[in-house]
Write a structure and sequence with these properties.
The structure is a homodimer. Chain A is α/β, with parallel strands linked by helices. Chain A is built from ten helices and 18 strands.
Chain lengths: ~425, ~425
């Protein structure tokens, strides 16, 4: 039984007609730019256009489309059946193996020639990237063609989500919520972050698979199911937002920054919460309140027609115009120079922009950043997650995932945001 | 307490003097090629040269070294403390945020100028790849420099492991063994692959963390601890080697292809076994025996001084010169044409080359492949994993990790290989 081949089965995956619409838009771009065709190597672009998920390795995989809209997949023999069943393409060209002899790109060249893809070729990269030991010529070296980047077009297209995509993100949110609920339940003084994270992720994933059954496929490269954890953001380490994990034991007074999500047919969501172990100190309460307020400033500024930079500027203004009630020392003993906007108000506790788009990738553009002037449009999906980082106290950050509506926003994540709900007794 | 700053603590991580030796060899290459310096973006190359592990995102990170051997890291402010503590570099240049204004690459340009890196610049890629929504100029567009690829040099250097690297791979093997032992123990008719994989991985990881304590850091981008699972390679699906996971229920008669490993200070290993649920059929026994024999053919051919292609040719010869005892149908109803080496003997069941090198990356070069004529040298580490794939019966593959010695090989994985040890009652 294959879900992809029987449209009468209930399914939540992206339909093949939606995939065809996406490829059709790319074809319009090819026509407009007078390209002979496109060659895409990026696994996310290929997943977006074909529904085919794969783990990129040293064996190159490519999506090809010529100016007549004829599509083909180029894959190692190893992936042939998988590519045929996932894409439904009539033309799946395989090569024996990498590196082999001749090099797979010799087969690619023949395929491009036979499809009439030459001269001006659109691509996401001039050749397959040299990952996992792959070596090979660039597309321009191989074909003598003029390679024109189409990545910006694809990035722009992927920004606006369809109803089906938003629904998959909604589904992802639910299971991230469960994983986070379990994470909070199992977090106790004396437990370690890894045991709690593994248990919460493990149980949430089994519940998710038992609940969704055949409706579910991960279609992700690295993850299956739901997960929740701490990424080392515990106690003092919380001040380093993307620190890699250590197996730290929870202690009273720790400030914890969590992260939870789930991958559903490739789509993901983000839920992060700041939790405090034991009775929060006054300083912790103060910082938490600022974090929560800064997030609300972003929610208020985020609306269709505004620019991404407007949202981040509003949040930065909040940092600049507010300060701690007592003359708290700035992080790292830095001198506060009120003339320098980097050090005004709460800016010493700032480390990163307000948020980013999310979908098939955990981060994607546009960014809620003072340097990104993209106009916010309905059906963009963003995380909103301004953070405060104090070396002596920890990091403070909530992240919520929201979708832009015609007349506002809908916050998709619904885990409690207030401090009283996030205290570990 | 920081392991990296206190050399008197017992540690199994790569020492800073070994990291300096690696960078020193790259500097020799820079000098030899008369480059003004190098710029590296690839996270594995950066981990190899600096010990700094990070998750690549839309925020570019680079390692810089000029022709005088002066090193610097280029990171977002978010990663500053992390980069300083992991690399110990005096010079860590940060930019405020991506995309921000000015673009981070403007800061990179200033840094390159100040280090005298211009003209002929070595790099692994002409600019930061456009991942997770990143957009930006290429290095050559940014600087007007002539960008010369140094990836092949780095790939060659990473092929030969030091004693410390082999020891980390040895440590990885142990915990992959535990995860696999638990995986086999919990696999039963009626259980599902995900519940068994999660439980085995979960318990093995906790045992590993409790055992190694502060000796352990993952330093991996996506994994912590040990894991074992099936990757959807169950029953009939096993014939698709890299199929993404589904939550399949084990049934009597299933042929299972497993995968287990652990990541230790970034280094990994590979252990895969073919298991059969219930009493194996004659056909299954026959195919298993061929798989095991083909692996032994590879072990025999793999020795210092031989070429990688010799090993794969020996294995292919085994496929070509042997056949099933009865006239079994070839996969997919393909016609057997004895004149075509693709269809001779057992070749219809062939899908991929014999193996690959492994280390910081799950796959790396050189490859045990007829097209890779690299001479095998002591302290290369390989997986050996010829496979047989029959749509009606499943996939058959063991993978073992070995290190090349001065006068032979040492197989590092020690999980039982014979069928009688791999039957699930």
């Amino acid at each position: 039984m294959s879900l992809s081949c029987n449209s009468s089965l209930t399914s939540i995956r992206i339909t093949s007609s939606e995939l065809q619409t996406r490829a059709g838009k790319l074809l319009e771009h090819v026509t407009e730019k007078r390209l002979s065709g496109v060659v895409l190597f990026d696994n996310y672009y290929i997943l977006y256009l074909t529904g085919f998920a794969f783990i990129p390795t040293e064996r190159p995989i490519a999506f090809l489309m010529n100016a007549r809209g004829e599509k083909a997949m180029f894959v190692p023999r190893l992936e042939r059946e998988h590519a045929v069943s996932e894409t439904g393409f009539e033309r799946v060209v395989d090569y024996v193996e990498y590196p082999c002899d001749p090099h797979p790109f010799q087969i690619l060249k023949k395929t491009l020639d036979s499809m009439g893809i030459s001269g001006d070729i659109g691509a996401d990269n001039d050749g397959y990237p040299w990952i996992y030991g792959y070596r090979g010529p660039s597309l321009s070296e191989l074909t003598g063609a003029n390679v024109i980047k189409v990545s910006a077009f694809l990035e722009d297209a992927m920004m606006i989500k369809s109803e089906a995509e938003v629904n998959l993100i909604r589904e992802s949110v639910k299971w991230g919520n469960l994983a986070h609920r379990l994470l909070q339940r199992y977090t106790k003084v004396g437990a370690t972050e890894t045991e709690v994270s593994l248990r919460a992720s493990h149980e949430a994933t089994l519940a998710m698979l038992d609940t969704l059954g055949p409706l579910y496929r991960s279609q992700s490269l690295f993850h299956e199911g739901a997960s929740a954890g701490y990424r080392g953001q515990i106690g003092r380490n919380a001040a380093i937002p993307h620190a890699l994990a250590n197996n730290i034991t929870f202690q009273a007074g720790d400030v914890l920054v969590t992260g939870a999500g789930a991958v559903v047919w490739g789509y993901t969501s983000e839920l992060e919460r700041t939790m405090v172990v034991g009775r929060p100190s006054e300083g912790q309460r103060e910082m938490f309140a600022h974090m929560k307020k800064a997030q609300e400033v972003a929610f208020d500024a985020l609306r269709p027609g505004a620019r991404c930079s407007d949202v981040d500027r509003a949040v930065r203004l909040y940092y600049e115009e507010n300060s701690l009630p007592v003359a708290s020392p700035a992080p790292g003993g830095q001198q506060r120079r009120e003339s320098d906007s980097d050090f005004r108000g709460l800016m010493p506790f700032w480390k990163h922009h307000t948020g980013h788009a999310i979908g098939l990738r955990m981060h994607e553009g546009p960014f809620l950043d003072v340097g990104d002037h993209t106009v916010i449009r309905p059906r963009m999906v963003f995380t909103v997650e301004p953070g405060f980082y104090a070396p002596d106290m920890g990091g403070f950050r909530h992240s919520d995932t929201l979708v832009v509506l015609d007349d506002g926003i809908e916050i998709l994540t619904y885990y409690p945001r207030e401090l009283e709900s996030l205290i570990i007794d």
